[in-house]
Structures are given as C-alpha cells and as structure tokens.
Amino acid sequence: MAMAARSERAMTVRSRVHGDGAADARAMVKRTAAVAHVTPRPQLVVVPTRRRAARLIAVGCTIVFGLMLGAAAFQTQLARRQLTLDTVDRDIRAAHEQYDVLRRERAELRSPGRLSVEATNLGMVPATQTEFVAIDADVVATVQRSGTADDSTNESASVEDEFEQYADVKAQAGGAP
C-alpha cells in the first residue's frame, strides 16, 4: 500500500505542467545555467619531479664523495704515522742493542781476570798479606768536616762537640740508627 502511494506521487510530479495548458506541457527537468562572466580555467599540468630528484641525487653524491675523500685522507695519515712509529721502534731496538753491547764491554773491562792481567802488565804484584790500619776518630771527624760545602759555619765547633751531639741524637733515638 505504501508502494502504491509513492508511485502515484511520482506520476503526478512527472506529469505536472507549467502554464495554462497541455500545449506547453513538458516534463520538469533540473538544469544549471552557464555563467557567462567566468573565464575558462587554464589547463593544469603536473610538473615532473625529476629536477628535484636530480638535485637530491647530486647532493647525496657530493656528500658520499666528500666522506670517501675524508676516509682516504684519514687512511693516509694512519699509514704515515704507522711508518713513523715503525721507525721509532727500530731506533729503540737499535739503542737497546747498543746498550747491551756497551754493558758487555764494561763487564769485560771490569772483570777480575782482565784487571789482574793489566795490573801484571803495569808491574803490579798480588799482595801477600792484608792488614787494617786504625785511624783516630779526631782525624775521621776532621776529614768529614773538611768535605762539607760550607766550612765557615762549623769552624767554632770542635770534634768533641760533634761527638756529643751524635751521642745525644743516639740517646734520643734509643740507639736505633
């Protein structure tokens, strides 16, 4: 029933006429009128992006080239410094070898066998006996005082005073050296 009412309404809309009679009868149609004052739109074209891509590729290649050039320069510096290190290592090894040679020569020159041969060549003879010589303590103290850098400060002090000072220090230290 609802369907029948709907189709009847549609028929009346289609058959509706404007004006006074059936002579002008025409079906109702929706139309849009063209606007006369609007100029036609220009045809739009998509610009190819090859130029932007080409620039990006050129910049990327430049960066990669710079990095590769930097890596090559870095490798060159490493190789040059390694050569310098190798030269220094060789010099150190040569210095160690020369040091060992000089130590061997010194040991040979100071060896007792060589010294006895050289002493015999100079006319020396081995000692038959040894004896110790006793030296007075005053002589030892005088010799020690004379060996100091500044003798003017110790002129007034006698040898006995120095021994007393030594005894005082030993007493305070409890006899420890």
Give short descriptive properties of this protein.
177 residues, mainly alpha, 5 helices
- By helix and strand content, what is the structural category? mainly alpha
Helical proportion? 55-70%
- Pattern of helices and strands: HHHHH
Q: What general form does the structure show?
A: elongated
Number of helices: 5
Biggest sheet features:
none
Q: Could you tell me the number of beta strands?
A: 0
Low-confidence stretches: none
Kindly describe this structure.
- With 177 residues, the chain is mostly helical.
- The protein has a domain at 52-110.
- The protein is built from five helices and no strands.
- The chain has helices spanning 2-15, 50-110, 112-121, 137-146, 159-172.
- The longest helix has 61 residues, at 50-110.
- It starts with a helix and ends in a 5-residue tail after the last helix.
- The mean pLDDT is 79.
Quick overview of this protein structure:
This protein has 177 residues and is an all-alpha fold. The chain is built from five helices and no strands.
List the helices and strands and how they pair.
Blueprint: H1 2-15, H2 50-110, H3 112-121, H4 137-146, H5 159-172
